[in-house]
Amino acid sequence: MGVLGFLTLWELVARLHLLPRDALPPASTTLARAAELLTDPAFLTQIGYTLWAALVGYAIALFIAVPLGLLLGLSNRVYAATSTIVELVRPLPPIGLVPLLVLVAGQGLEMKSAVVALGCVFPLLVNTIHGVHSTNGVARATARSFGWSPALVAYRVVWPSAVPSVLTGVRVTVSIALILCIGAEFIGGSTTGLGSWLLLQSMLPQGIDSVCAGVIIAGLLGLVINAIVSVLETKYASWARRDEG
């Protein structure tokens, strides 16, 4: 009902010309254009470029954040030595670094992946550290009392306990990855991807229909990706929810 009400309000605002036609096309026109785009191979190719860049950048963020988060979470000494640096760098907006990254990495896949990685690595890192710190201390002490090595304790006790927190970080950041990638394409002068396509359409006469349709499709992509991660989170962290219950 919420979606239907929103679309109805959108249609009324556009049809009653409460906003200029070149600023807000009717919802029916936008949805029809979105349906056309979803059958257009050229448009789907642009989505593919965006998804691939987001995936590469996100994989880099995971590869860095999860092992580093485990290390920082397990070692109080290392955490104390690096926490100030992490907190200093973490607030930097990745999109604000696009001009620098364009100079260093160009306007293609490398730049877009770097923006995604920088934007996702710190939330994933913080969630991993939190997951490690939330591990039951008694369970860790018991495992050590049986002569388990630190590596075995980390693998058999700490990691399973940290997984729910890591997956929460994944669920939060997958949508951020898509947004960052589109933003990097939009302002970084990229020649491929959904952001580049949106920028081109915004410069064309009557391009507002395509722009709004592209934004709707980007939002739907985010919803689908988030739903997939939520299913994985439910499947692989179900024991944590049972414990909380």
TrEMBL record:
Chief location: membrane
Say which domain of life the source belongs to. Bacteria
Q: One GO biological process from the UniProt record? A: transmembrane transport
Q: Which keywords does the record carry?
A: Cell membrane, Membrane, Transmembrane, Transmembrane helix, Transport
Is Nucleotide-binding set as a keyword in this record?
no
Q: Which InterPro entries match?
A: MetI-like, MetI-like_sf
Q: Which family does it belong to?
A: Belongs to the binding-protein-dependent transport system permease family.
Q: What is this protein called?
A: ABC transmembrane type-1 domain-containing protein
Q: What is the lineage of its organism?
A: Bacteria, Bacillati, Actinomycetota, Actinomycetes, Mycobacteriales
